[in-house]
Amino acid sequence: MTEAAASQTAMIEIIKVGKSYPPNVTALTDISVSIASGEIFFLIGRSGAGKTTLLKLLCNMEKPTNGLIEVAGMNIHQVTGNKLAKLRQRVGMAYQDFRLLTDRTVAENIAISMEVSYKKNQIIRNRVRSLLAQLQLEDKHDILTGDLSRGEQQRVAIARAVANSPALILVDEPTGNLDATSTEQVMELLIRCRNSGATIVIATHDEALYRHSTHRIMKLHNGRLDSLTRGDGQGQPNTAGATDDTGATGGSGDGI
After folding, report:
1. What residues contact residue 184 under an 8 Å CB cut-off, 6+ apart?
2. What is the CA radius of gyration of the chain?
3. Beta 168-172 vs 91-94: how paired, if at all?
């Protein structure tokens, strides 16, 4: 799915959103933006600009102080019960601090989101091995995540976030501990997810990820929207025909 084809439908609507913490900390002020279904969207800005806070609001970890956030047409902060459980299954989050279960193996960590969705065991095993192969972690399948390097942990966290083919993937600083080769593998995986229908929001300090892309870039400064631009398109790889590891080219992430 190309971004042009997906642009007719918004996956995320953020309308005049603010977030404050007691006693008097303002993290976000009057943020408004629409993100299309199937879009890769970058959040940039200095540390403390509000990028992680916005991701927390998008995945319903926290609620905005004011304003409205809709995901797939639903006000995510008013959803309860079964609808909330279903929504959480369709959102994948790769945290900056990983949040892995360090006493569980790599395979067990990646499998979690699929297990709670009651996927068949064979499907889970195949998906886990496919993701490890794409990230060159095949030999870590049975290793405890607590015994991995930080770069390996980061890749496992990303694999876990995308494992259940979520409609919305939120990624916080995905390449902070990675070398150039691992960074390329991660971005190729995320692009495959986008080409299968997912919407992807990436918070990053790594200018190399977005500078030469064709994707939109929202810069935050002191919790405010500073600019909304697009990469120059000079270095975007030819990924329009890329598929996910199942061979699908669209539809898996179109709805929640």
Report:
1. none
2. 17
3. parallel
Q: Where are the beta strands (DSSP E) in the chain?
A: 10-21, 25-36, 40-44, 66-71, 74-75, 91-94, 168-172, 199-203, 216-221, 224-230
Q: Per DSSP, what are the bridge partners of residue 35?
A: 12
Length of the chain, please? 256
Place of tokens 């309308």: 15
Q: Are 65 and 104 in contact (CB under 8 A)?
A: no
Average confidence score pLDDT of the chain:
90
Helix, strand, coil: what percent of the chain each, to 5?
Answer: 35, 25, 40
Cis before 237 (ω within 30): no
Beta-bridged to residue 74, according to DSSP, are 71
Tokens of 106: 């790599």
222 and 135 Cβ atoms separated by less than 8 Å: no
Vertex 59, ends 55 and 64: CA angle to 5°?
70
Pick from 201, 209, 212: nearest CA to 236: 212
Which residues face 21 on adjacent strands? 25
Q: Which band of pLDDT confidence, cut at 50, 70 and 90, is reported for residue 2?
A: very low
Q: Identify whether the C-beta of residue 58 lies closer than 8 Å to the C-beta of residue 71.
A: yes
The whole-model pTM stands at: 0.88
Q: What was the pLDDT predicted at 256?
A: 53
* Confidence category of residue 5, pLDDT binned at 50, 70, 90: very low
Residue 89's pLDDT band, with cuts at 50, 70 and 90, is: confident
Query: What is the average pLDDT across 67-73?
Result: 94
Q: Is 50 exceeded by the pLDDT of residue 253? A: no
**Residues in CB range of 240: below 8 A, 6 or more apart:** 2, 195
